[in-house]
Amino acid sequence: MDQQPSLNLSVWDADREKEFIKISEDLGISDPVSARIIGEQGQEFRLELVSIKEEGTGTLTGALRFNADSSLDLPVAGDWVLVTKLSGEEYLIHKVLPRRSLLVRKTKGETLKPDPICANMDRIFLLHGLDGDFQPRRLERTLIQIWESKATPVVVLTKKDLYSDREEELREKIEIVRKSCPGVEVFSVSNHKQEGLEELEMFWKDGSTSAFIGSSGVGKSSLLNLLIGEKIRSVNEVRESDSKGRHTTTNRWMFRLDSGAWILDTPGMREIQLWSDGSGLEETFPEIFEAASDCRFQDCSHISEPDCGVKFAINLGKISEERFKSYLKLKRELERTANLSAPNSVEFREQKAKWKSIHKEQKRMQQQRDRERYR
């Protein structure tokens, strides 16, 4: 299976150059500099400057911060941005260039806010442990967001060394994951024994940009250290009682390999809250949508309608009951989020009014600080 992207999602090319020039003209900036966000921690950003191949630090302009309708308008790791120089290595970030891929999740709780994770990734590697935290259903949830981001998903199962004397059980678990992730390449590795890493080498030879995501303690930073060839990220052992790890990565940082490829390491994410228009659902459950084409009714819910193609496929064993239940659960969650975020819903209006008030107060406080600073 060839899942190699064309790399048009991450690279600086002629089209991005045109976008950069147009935005510079629209903003009336005479000395613009193009840069990429290669690290972020809070409101501090690390930049790689395109033209001079040097690094610097960036802060947001007041206009960018306070004119943003949501966090989607602010930069994240992987973004290409327009900046101007302040002094030394310090730059002001004026604008985020149009993105070609964007991984987003919903913020925790009932708050209807997007939480962008990374942008302009060619591939997103979803790391999942083969230890006691093994939960294939969680992969399906995350794949919805990855497919929708426009990046190519790759699943990497870590800690295969735990099955050194149980090879048949290992093969069974890998097969379970393959069935849960149709259309996605699946690999198994052992960071401890450095096994399976050679199969991933093909992904680092093309100058692409990739992100590592997964739960805390799954081995993201350990794998990155092995690829870099030195310990650049701290790692912690997981608790044996529940196979859960502590957060050792607290920021998002991109690292360049010798091949020129970039890898983004991210803090642990145990479960992604869905922020989706539903388009990733079909790519995550293609067999269900294919069977649905045989349903008598176009709006078939696959629950009680007669002549349902999906129920027929389940009876034939072409679709597993577990996959179908997972599909229904995620579909209901997506529908609920869509209903709550509809412009005419009470929840949407309340959230909009709340954040409008917060942003107004933040702007007032910033203006007050600016006045005091320049007295």
Write the layout of secondary structure elements.
Blueprint: H1 14-27, E1 33-41, E2 44-49, E3 55-60, H2 62-67, E4 80-87, E5 90-96, E6 102-106, E7 114-119, E8 123-129, H3 136-149, E9 152-158, H4 167-180, E10 185-188, E11 209-214, H5 220-228, E12 252-256, E13 262-265, H6 279-284, H7 286-292, H8 309-315, H9 321-340, H10 346-373
Subunit structure: Monomer. Associates with 30S ribosomal subunit, binds 16S rRNA.
Organism: Leptospira koniambonensis
Keywords: Cytoplasm, GTP-binding, Hydrolase, Metal-binding, Nucleotide-binding, Ribosome biogenesis, RNA-binding, rRNA-binding, Zinc
Number of helices: 10
Gyration radius, rounded: 23 Å
Question: What percentage of amino acids are in beta strands?
Answer: 15-25%
Protein structure class: alpha/beta
Poorly predicted residue ranges:
234-249, 343-348
Q: Look up the CATH topology of the domain at 102-232 and 250-265.
A: Rossmann fold
Q: What percent of the residues sit in helical stretches (DSSP H or I)?
A: 25-40%
Query: Would you identify the CATH architecture of the domain at 102-232 and 250-265?
Result: 3-Layer(aba) Sandwich
Number of strands: 13
Principal-axes shape call = globular
Strand arrangement, major sheet: 1-2-3-5-4
- Report how far apart the termini are: 64 Å
Q: Could you give a short account of the major beta sheet?
A: 5 strands, mixed, barrel
CATH evolutionary superfamily of the domain at 102-232 and 250-265: P-loop containing nucleotide triphosphate hydrolases
